[in-house]
Protein 1
Amino acid sequence: MMRSILIGLSKSKAMERFVLSNPLARKTSRRFVAGEELPDALAAARGSNQEGLKASLDYLGENVASREDAVNAREMYIGVFDRIAQEGLDANVSLKLTQLGLDFGEDFCREQAEAIVQHAAALGNFVRLDMEGSAYTERTVEITRRLREKSDAVGTVIQAYLYRSEKDIELLLKAGCRIRLCKGAYLEPPEVAFPAKKDVDANYVKLMKILLASGIYHGMATHDPAMIAATVDYAAANGIAKDEFEFQMLYGIRVDLQKQLVRDGYRMRVYIPYGRDWFPYFMRRLAERPANVMFLARNLFRAD
Ligand code: FDA
């Protein structure tokens, strides 16, 4: 219930104006967002690297309003790869295709993405195409597959809550694609996604096994100790070494567990979002955990 309200509000412009103009909400957002400018994200990546964590930088933004904005986002990401290389950071990039103009045509969007992938490949780096709401799944899979035909510097994300995910994995593995597995963060109807958490979790474990058995390097993105334990157990039982896959978690969430997994010898990548357009990302993080809403409410209504 709370989850649907918050995800619904993540699309409200009035709510966005209210939250963005509220200094305490901005301050609270810093729990999940590294800052509004690239140097903030680079500093967070450097700090993560020093702790033994890899990073993935996400310049926040989705559903851009014009082709011009998409082209600007493309140039921004090309610059991000240059900065990562200059600073010698262990970091790649995660981006959303709607930020590269997917709403303005699949070919247009693929061209923007291809320019970024080529640049990343030239620097020996990697682009992860985040997965958005189910209206975009088919096109994201298709664009990834086409880009992967030309370069191995690109991969995408599969959401365990979607019924279609096993088939998508099959298709993407045939193309040799690296996949990030997550549970899924959007509000989806029961026609396309498992409504019950236990079914999403069961599908996550099932898909994790398919991915780990594929021999391709994938990312298991979750903060759920049960999913992590299932992955650790499956890898150990099947002779899959700790450096043949990585765990991934979001900036500011379960930092204790992130460090523990590094101490246990696993690879861990932290997803570092930054930028001014943090509102929808922030709302999805609140939706994942009611305690986060209380945290925000306490900050918003504090007397000082
Ligand atoms: P679950 O929601 O069951 O949470 C397990 C436990 O983790 C909770 O009990 C709590 O302790 C902790 N936790 C989880 N979320 C928290 C939060 N917001 N605040 C505090 N604690 C929290 N989704 C998507 O649709 N497309 C994408 O491309 C991506 N990309 C992505 C990258 C990375 C690196 C991660 C980690 C996640 C994503 N996601 C995503 C989000 C993902 O789909 C999912 O919504 C969240 O990871 C929450 O699911 P968990 O697997 O953590 O389990």
Protein 2
Amino acid sequence: MRDYLKFYIDGAWVDPVTPKTAEVINPATEAVSGHISLGSAADIDKAVAAARKAFASWSVSSVKDRLDILKAMKAEYDRRAGELGAAITEEMGAPASLGNGFHVFLGGGHLQTVIEVLETFRFEELRGSTLTRHEPIGVCGLITPWNWPLNQVAVKVFPAIATGCTSVLKPPQLAPYSAQILAEIIHASGLPAGVFNMVQGSGSVLGTALTTHDDVDMISFTGSESIGVQIAKDAAPTVKRVGLELGGKSAIVILDDAALIDNVAGNTAGMMSNSGQTCSANSRMLVPFSRMDDAIAAATKAANEVTVGDPTGNVAMGPVVSKGQYNSIQEYIQKGIDEGDQLIAGGLGRPEGLDKGWFVKPTVFVTTNDSTIAREEIFGPVLVIIGYNDIDHAVEIANDSNFGLAGGVAGLDQEACRDVAKRLRAGLIGINGGFDFHAAFGGYKRSGNGREWGKFGFHEYLEIKSITNYEPA
Ligand code: NAP
Ligand code: MG
């Protein structure tokens, strides 16, 4: 049982102003795995005051001091990597291989990348006689989701620290453990009191307290479109900068070539990773109509081969995060069936042999781009396959979405892949996969307006000041 009942404010572990606790549920067993305290606006006030106080000195700290602290954090992160992985498996159900693997790798990779960027980042540039200064924006409210809980915290907290900002983090209620351990790691690094603060609890209470707070300068939010819209409205009266990283319905275009069967299989299995709870997941797969039979056979086989079960064991897929998420996914599967979409793998209910835990069957439909399950983000292991006539048609379907977070193209002809990649209206396109910590991550259209990762993530936390006649001619 994990009982994480204190908040991290002004460099110390403190009790909530008003004691109140909530259970945390293990999604694989439905059993209570621990408790957190639920903060109130009064806790946010304390955390923001600490962050404001710390900003005076941290905003003018040297790059060398910040680098030393970030490097100490990285060493401590690596030392506690195993604990972080176990916490992620327990809080949101990622299989151990994924929790200890990619989840922990991402958090540490972003920290390492922030260190590398900080080593060469130009906070000042002279152009003619004008000096441009990139100055920390101030006190930042950081609000994160449960799906890649450590990654989402890492892409906000580390660049905020590196740029000289101070922050208050509100982690997800459903998955609060990895953030708690990360706060311990940050505490151990020698970061001055108040630079980073964390309050656990509900988004409607703490999130709103942050987004409406007079003394918060910036909000960085990752989560759903509807909450993102609410946050933008709540932050408007105080004219905060708001960085939004929202949902997606990304498309992968499978080209018509000798690799099609492998590409369909690989991308079907890939989409099921993390139980499909990845904002940038390619949840629409576009295949040539002329190869639809091959695609159906390959996707069905790949989905049926995904092993589902106890995430502490050797499985490819664990549960989804919660009962609410399970029910929402079941409703989408039912909707697909009701609208006449062709179910080719998975379907309603839990996988055979699993009668407890929020396990979903790896599910694949063949449909058209106007069906509900092709338009809305399901955020579960549900893939839709859509046929296309030619490349122009594929690009048109891919771009016919309210979202524009990510996408991909898979094929043997690199030139053809490049052509499709350039025509997709989305922020991150993978040609036959690929991964880069220095690439900008963020969405077009309703997938948001922010850009995280690498040097792009720094700019989220920086104001631009011009000083004219700085070096008179
Ligand atoms: P969510 O329901 O929008 O919640 C995200 C965070 O916002 C949680 O910490 C939540 O608190 C908090 N929140 C809730 N109401 C709020 C309010 N009124 N004001 C301020 N904060 C509030 O999202 P989720 O269900 O956790 O995560 C799934 C969504 O995140 C998907 O749409 C996914 O695509 C998106 N996502 C996007 C990216 C990206 O980089 N673009 C990455 C990952 C996920 P609680 O703990 O109380 O819920
Ligand atoms: Mg939610």
